[in-house]
Amino acid sequence: MVKAVVGANWGDEGKGKITDMLAEKADIVIRFQGGANAGHTIVNEYGKFALHSLPSGVFYGHTTSIIGNGVALNIPVFFNEIQSLTDRKVPMPKLLVSDRVQIVMPYHILFDQYEEERLGGKSFGSTKSGIAPFYSDKYAKIGFQVSELFEEERLREKVERVVEVKNVLLEHLYHKPLIDCGELMETLKRYKEMVAPYVCDVSAYLDRALKEGKTILLEGQLGTLKDTDHGIYPMVTSSSTLAAYGSVGAGLPPYEIKDIITVCKAYSSAVGAGAFVSEIFGAEADELRRRGGDGGEFGATTGRPRRMGWFDCVASKYGCRLQGTTEVAFTVLDVLGYLDEIPVCTGYEIDGKVTTDFPVTAMLEKAKPVWKVLPGWKCDIRGIRDYAELPENCRNYVEFIEGQIGYPITMVSNGPGRGDIIYRARV
Ligand code: GDP
């Protein structure tokens, strides 16, 4: 049985917490796309952790955590992260790395920085982790799979061929120091030694696991609106953030994905540039940012303050639809307890017409939010475990949003911890 945990919005919806929680009953947790450019924050008995490349199952002894072929694997970041966990007394997790996953090369990170510098004010707001150059090279067929590290002569030949092109750009476009093939080969040798004990034919492993009736969780990074095709192009990420891609990025049959849990946050936040219709500013935004998440809405990887907004029903309905949602986990609801009234964006006004369909980017940039204001509940809902015990206005908020997005909210998260969850029966 395969379940996917994915985001409906711009990322940071609380997928890490939901995955960590569901991993208790899973045998395998697998990352299938993205790299170390975004993070999941997890709070559990070992403390508070920001994971960037490790799957959120690493805290359990019984789960195997896998880096699927669709990921952008930054080998030093990956191993530093393992070290930071074991330093804090988390037992060494069981890890596997796909032999087909590609490696973020040191020059991908440099090219990301140089390109942002070159674009200046027109930049995409990249986290400069090398993700866009990585995926560009992957599809230009000049990327490096982990398996290639083990064939030294073949590797050297390819490194020389690829570096020749990179050095032309470094010299003539960016005016930066050139790549030295010998040095790069040394780095790749170190990478090989680090990764060797974990390399595995992941799709074959998963095939066996499925036949043995194991439970597999696919863990998504970012959310629908950052998907390369269906998101706010070009202010998107360079890999697909959709559950469907889990099949490709892990190496699983698509029909095995039976449950798609889409995580939606009770308000909105986004990082990076791009249209954000329900965005709020000034003191109103500062207060939500300060109270948001667990200790404020600042990027888990970058520390950047997140852009804030009220819940966007148009974007979330679309976000859930593209994921193929079977159920919604509605998170961070506890944070809204300070508000007298809570605005919710229920439509977009574009050229004088109101729509609830999420448009293409050019139209999105013209969209103005249509607000509906709901009454707040003015109390702390943390610690509540039974849906019926939530204040009436709080239940009304959940049910109003459920009606707008059209997918069942089966879980309500009212705190960052594993136990802070309220299960709701499907209606
Ligand atoms: P992810 O990338 O989707 O996993 O999201 P992040 O980890 O970047 O952001 C979610 C933040 O909200 C983290 O700091 C979580 O600890 C926190 N969080 C998750 N669920 C809840 C919740 O229900 N209530 C509160 N207050 N914080 C939560």
Describe the secondary structure blueprint for this structure.
Layout: E1 2-7, H1 15-22, E2 28-31, E3 40-44, E4 47-51, E5 64-67, E6 72-73, H2 75-87, E7 94-98, E8 102-103, H3 106-119, H4 131-139, H5 152-174, H6 181-195, E9 199-200, H7 202-211, E10 216-223, H8 243-250, E11 257-265, E12 268-270, E13 279-280, H9 282-291, E14 307-309, E15 311-312, H10 313-323, E16 327-331, E17 341-350, E18 353-355, H11 361-364, E19 368-375, H12 392-405, E20 409-413, E21 421-423
Helix pairs in contact: 3-4
The protein binds guanosine-5'-diphosphate (GDP).
The site of guanosine-5'-diphosphate has 25 residues, from helix 1 and strand 3.
Give an overview in words:
This protein is α/β, with parallel strands linked by helices and 427 residues long. The chain has 2 domains: 2-84 and 204-423, Adenylosuccinate Synthetase, subunit A, domain 3 (Adenylosuccinate Synthetase, Chain A, domain 3, Alpha-Beta Complex), CATH 3.90.170.10; 102-197, Adenylosuccinate Synthetase, subunit A, domain 2 (Orthogonal Bundle), CATH 1.10.300.10. Helices cover 33% and strands 22% of the residues. It has a 10-stranded mixed sheet with strand order 9-7-5-2-10-1-11-16-20-21, with helices on both faces. Strands 15, 17, 18 and 19 form a 4-stranded mixed sheet that branches. A 3-stranded antiparallel sheet has the order 12-14-13, covered by helices on one side. β3 (40-44) and β4 (47-51) form a beta hairpin. α3 crosses α4 (131-139). It is globular. Bound molecules: guanosine-5'-diphosphate. Guanosine-5'-diphosphate binds at residues 7, 11-17, 38-41, 43, 293-294, 300, 331-332, 334-335, 413-416, 420.
